[in-house]
């Protein structure tokens, strides 16, 4: 089974060909990535310190055809070899979503190959199955530029949100901190790099911890504290910047450690006969080595494993979209030609609407 994946929901134009492996001898399905082409628009958006939706739309439009062609070429395949096309239909920036979805519809109409409109978050959520053959159910921590959520992944299409951010997403907090310290964009990797030579104890930033009943995240207080530290110590030396980054990252790590412990306990409660105990991390922030290191230790305390896909599959890519398409192929009906893009599309549609859930993009 071969699927072409297309991703254009934010600031990466991406296409990928993924093959599904799994037969009676090897019943756990997993993926073989034949090509994975990602064109990042970082340079186009860098002067603005964040993603500018109109610039993103134009960049997707001018690049997508070539990116798809390259993905097919790299894989040594023809479009007609595909069993399906999988395309991100939301959540994200409308212009980009429309570019990807219309392209997939056109390719499908011209070739008769079915297409699947995929939720970008489902792509992130299922990446651990593509890379590590993780079996359902598992606990998922999705931390990206638009999301910070814990979810129960009970099966394909069966997701329960356990916690989300009530304000900024975690990646957004990294990006805003970097912008404030004039480090550049996207901020996550730059803050992580600067933090390496900093003192994590110099600034005592707030660690908004939940009351017993509230497991949600909130990062806006942390952002304000970072701004105040930067103002109080201006002009900032390189060491000041490194110390702020290290202290900021430490506050994040402490909050994640606290929530992970609570979520694991909760998950074990609702899944008493759990055999494989896995926490899968997904989304761009999962590429942060310090965060992964702390989450690994926290999981080990409970006899759990942390599954962290490689960094290039944590950040936005089309291989995860192709894989989500492969999971749906044979399990769900293909999408109709009139399916519409959705700028807001929570994975758990029954969960209460909170600003930080089901939203991504528009980070500028
Ligand atoms: O999943 P992703 O590529 O796009 C969205 O769906 O938003 O995540 C991008 C986010 C950005 O906010 C970026 O700063 C953050 O992930 N990020 C990181 C790191 N690498 C990327 N945050 C912290 N540490 C990193 N190493
Ligand atoms: Zn993403």
Summarize the structure.
By secondary structure, the chain is α/β, with parallel strands linked by helices.
Please, could you describe this protein's structure?
By secondary structure, the protein is α/β, with parallel strands linked by helices. It has 2 domains: about 1-130 and about 310-330, Nucleotidyltransferase, domain 5 (2-Layer Sandwich), CATH 3.30.420; about 135-310, ATPase, nucleotide binding domain (Nucleotidyltransferase, domain 5). The protein is about 40% helix and about 20% strand. It contains 11 helices and 10 strands. It has helices at about 40-45, 55-75, 95-110, 120-130, 170-180, 185-195, 220-230, 240-270, 290-300, 310-315, 320-330, and strands at about 1-5, 10-20, 30-40, 85-90, 115-120, 140-145, 150-155, 160-165, 280, 305. The strands form 2 sheets. It has a 5-stranded mixed beta sheet, with helices on both faces. Strands 8-7-6-9-10 form a 5-stranded mixed beta sheet, with helices on both faces. Strand 4, helix 3 and strand 5 (about 115-120) form a beta-alpha-beta unit. Helix 6 crosses helix 8 (about 240-270). The longest helix has about 35 residues, at about 240-270. Bound molecules: 5'-O-[(R)-(carboxyoxy)(hydroxy)phosphoryl]adenosine and zinc ion. Zinc ion binds near residues 120, 124, 283 and 316.
